[in-house]
């Protein structure tokens, strides 16, 4: 009997030696503590990603940027023409001056603002801190509260500074600050049919504590300050949502709010464009039908340099047609500069446009040949003059147009052989389509910012697996002029961090190349097996797998530290690739996950330590919908889901997004792709998270899903969060609860009791 028992134990021991051990020891207190070190605020104290966001100073070749790293926060000034790089001001003296004026202590490395404006020819700066506007002299370093700027917070100043526009009682007014003279431009404004205000969101109402919110007027001044364009917004017949703020900070009773939120297929608000002559107050209505307004805000316009005309984009409901119109500012007459028509839709989320020669020509992007490319239109005839870019690659953005040289600079991906097709490079091409030139050759993702005169640009580049930096370059040659910042990952590497691994394979169709990323814990052991967690977002308006170093370190790495392999995938239906790749999700928002499952299986085939019997998924917004949808349609694959702020039913979500990607008019696909329709399919563990004051995706979507799950007699978990807008918003409690859910149901261990994620300490502490 003993021999038989011993033999059984021996078999078990041999099996353990031959098979990788499951990572059951993970999810411990030490893992949670290590994961906490990857919070973004903490990373900023120990690493530098080398990225630079330049703020160009007026029309000069000078700019400032903010540097954040182990030594704290610093503002640097660069003169590209010299070149010169130095502190933008004396940080210690400014901190002392502000401490005196504000009667609280500030450190030179922790100034209480992230952006500022130079004034008085660079002799002072303006900035805002705690909703107080400050003016600080850089000559004698004295800071004073800028009461005038605070008084004009809800006003729009003309370019020459002589006039200020504002809204009172639904009407538009002008003030001449020099004398206090007030001019009432409109008199018939009323609630929900008012002038110069866009649709306010619930968040604005909550933050101001009232239904009647204050907001800057929606006015567009001509360059010479002689005219302005605004609109009258008619939302009288548009649908509303009601929300309760259950735990307002200033009272025990909940607060009720109502806000305009048109759903797919409903009546939309409209905006009638209007021109006002400032000197005379003369009103001229633009001679065109009012524009549809799908979401918060309102339409926008762009003035010509001479102030005699302006342009605006329009979109036909259903997204089958879009274009650009030009308006004569003196008469209000309108002419079509160009029109784009496409089936099944015009990709307005990614359409680029730039008026050239004050409307003589128009640059416009279109995927009509199968890829997003630039076209040059004749602004007088509306006809295409020539296609500017060609090939099986996609233009992502227009960076600068040199009208004198007749050249356009743009970012594009997929042109360079052997690279991830999502990585963007800067190119230049003549407007006639000749002379294409690559200006940023490094195999990395490049983002650029041009000086106003087009002579220089700042290039920040990296990959998830390549620390890069930022350099100042010559626009004419692309040659490097000066290194600005370099990524410094030494502290992170000392913690055992290794960069995530880019991975690509075939989609569910067996032919389409699909790309993703893999994160591993810093204490990774290939002899163990690990559950897999996918972070998902399948919104068709963009692509989401990180392509830069800075975006690839943080949330996914934190989760990996708990004992998971974390992955992300961009499957068919998202952007950045071909027209067919993108339109795969049209009227098919729920059909994107076959590619995700296919690629994760290929990852596991290469790396057997990925345990596909234990797969989880989470996401926010469209990712909240997508994660829940994935566990419903692939219950055999996904076993645990955390769905945050999910738009679970396209019939209850914003018209602007769903009519574009799910189609118009509303049809059966809206029902088929709804998570409500599939609630009975739930088999795994599901945690739903939503905030009570979410105005991007109203909590009614989650509550309708909850109702469907209850009717289907399904068990699930839920966190309904007071005072939470869209997404977790940095809420460390919710982050910990998300960790706990995967640790409990994928690792099968009890999470550390009452663990509190410690926030980052100030620099220097």
Structure notes:
The protein is α+β, with helices and mostly antiparallel strands. Helix content is 18%, strand content 33%. It contains 15 helices and 45 strands. Strands 1, 38, 39, 40, 41, 42, 43, 44 and 45 form a 9-stranded mixed beta sheet that branches. Strands 14, 15, 16, 19, 20 and 21 form a 6-stranded antiparallel beta sheet that branches. The protein has a 4-stranded antiparallel beta sheet with strand order 2-3-4-5. Helix 2 packs antiparallel against helix 8 (555-561). The longest helix has 17 residues, at 2-18. The model is unreliable at 1-20 (pLDDT under 50).
Spans of at least 5 consecutive residues whose pLDDT stays below 50 are 1-20
Kindly, what is the distance between the CA atoms of the first and last residues, rounded to a whole number of angstroms? 65 Å
- Main beta-sheet annotation: 9 strands, mixed
State the helical fraction: 10-25%
Beta-strand share of residues: 25-35%
* C-alpha-based Rg, rounded: 28 Å
Derived structural class: alpha+beta
Shape: globular
Total DSSP E strands? 45
In DSSP terms, counting alpha (H) and pi (I) runs of 4 or more, how many helices? 15
Mean pLDDT score: 94
């Amino acid at each position: 009997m003993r021999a038989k028992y011993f033999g059984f134990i021996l078999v078990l021991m041999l099996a353990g030696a031959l098979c990788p051990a499951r990572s059951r020891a993970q999810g411990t207190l030490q893992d949670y503590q290590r994961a906490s070190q990857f919070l973004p605020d903490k990373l900023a104290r120990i690493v530098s990603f080398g990225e630079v966001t330049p703020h160009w100073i007026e029309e000069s070749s000078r700019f400032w940027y903010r540097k954040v790293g182990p030594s704290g926060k610093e503002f640097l000034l660069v003169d590209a023409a010299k070149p010169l790089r130095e502190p933008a001001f004396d940080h210690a003296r400014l901190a002392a001056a502000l401490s005196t004026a504000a009667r609280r202590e500030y450190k030179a490395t922790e100034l209480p603002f992230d952006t500022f404006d130079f004034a008085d020819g660079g002799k002072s700066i303006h900035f805002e801190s705690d909703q107080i506007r400050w003016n600080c002299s850089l000559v004698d370093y004295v800071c004073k509260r800028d009461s005038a700027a605070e008084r004009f917070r809800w006003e729009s100043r003309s370019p020459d500074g002589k006039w200020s526009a504002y809204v009172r009682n639904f009407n538009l007014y002008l003030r001449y600050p020099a004398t206090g003279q007030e001019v009432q431009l409109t008199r018939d404004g009323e609630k929900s049919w008012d002038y110069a205000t866009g649709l306010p969101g619930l968040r604005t109402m909550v933050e101001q504590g009232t239904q009647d919110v204050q907001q800057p007027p929606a006015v567009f001044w001509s360059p010479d300050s002689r005219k302005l364009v605004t609109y009258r917004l008619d939302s009288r017949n548009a649908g509303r949502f009601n929300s309760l703020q259950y735990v307002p900070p200033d009272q025990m009773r909940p607060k009720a709010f109502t806000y305009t939120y048109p759903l797919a297929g409903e009546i939309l608000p409209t905006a009638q464009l209007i021109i006002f002559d400032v000197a005379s107050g003369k009103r001229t209505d633009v001679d065109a039908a009012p524009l549809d307004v799908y979401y918060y805000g309102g339409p926008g316009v762009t003035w010509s340099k001479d102030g005699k005309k302006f342009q605006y984009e329009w979109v036909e409901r259903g997204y089958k047609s879009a274009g650009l119109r030009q308006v004569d500012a003196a008469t209000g007459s309108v002419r079509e500069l160009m029109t784009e028509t496409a089936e099944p839709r015009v990709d307005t989320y990614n359409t680029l446009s730039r008026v050239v020669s004050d409307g003589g020509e128009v640059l416009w992007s279109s995927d009509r040949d199968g890829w997003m490319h630039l076209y040059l239109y004749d602004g007088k005839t509306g006809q295409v003059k020539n296609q500017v870019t060609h090939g099986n690659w996609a233009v992502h953005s227009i960076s600068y147009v040199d009208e004198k040289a007749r050249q356009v600079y743009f970012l594009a991906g997929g042109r360079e052989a052997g690279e991830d097709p999502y990585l963007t490079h800067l190119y230049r091409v003549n407007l006639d389509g000749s002379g294409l030139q690559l200006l940023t050759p490094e195999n990395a993702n490049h983002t650029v910012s041009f000086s106003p005169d087009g002579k220089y640009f700042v290039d920040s580049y990296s990959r998830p697996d390549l620390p890069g930096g930022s350099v100042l370059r010559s626009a004419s040659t692309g040659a490097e002029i000066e290194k600005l910042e370099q990524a410094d990952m030494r502290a992170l590497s000392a913690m055992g961090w290794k960069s995530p691994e880019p991975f690509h394979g075939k989609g569910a169709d067996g032919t389409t190349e699909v790309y993703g990323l893999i994160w591993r814990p810093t204490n990774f052991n290939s002899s163990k097996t690990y559950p897999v967690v996918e972070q998902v977002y399948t919104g068709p308006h963009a692509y989401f797998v990180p392509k830069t170093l800075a975006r690839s370190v943080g949330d996914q790495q934190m989760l990996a530290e708990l004992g998971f392999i974390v992955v992300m995938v961009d499957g068919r239906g998202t952007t950045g690739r071909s027209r067919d790749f993108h339109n795969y999700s049209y009227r098919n928002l729920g059909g994107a996950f076959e590619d995700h499952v296919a690629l994760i299986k290929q990852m596991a085939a290469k790396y057997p330590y990925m345990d596909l019997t234990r797969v989880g998924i989470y996401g926010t917004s469209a990712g909240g919908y997508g994660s829940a949808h994935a566990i419903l349609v692939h219950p055999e694959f996904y076993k645990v889901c955390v769905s945050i702020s999910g738009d679970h039913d396209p019939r209850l979500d914003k018209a602007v997004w769903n009519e574009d990607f799910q189609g118009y008019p509303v049809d059966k696909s809206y029902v088929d792709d709804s998570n409500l329709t599939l609630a009975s399919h739930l088999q795994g563990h599901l945690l739903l998270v939503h905030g009570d004051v979410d105005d991007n995706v109203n909590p009614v979507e989650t509550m309708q899903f909850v109702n469907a799950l209850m009717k289907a007699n399904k068990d699930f978990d839920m966190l309904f969060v007071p005072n939470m807008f869209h997404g977790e918003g940095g809420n460390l409690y919710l982050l910990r609860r998300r960790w706990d859910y995967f640790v409990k149901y994928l690792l099968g261990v009890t999470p550390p009791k009452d663990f509190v994620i410690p926030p980052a300490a100030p620099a220097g502490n």
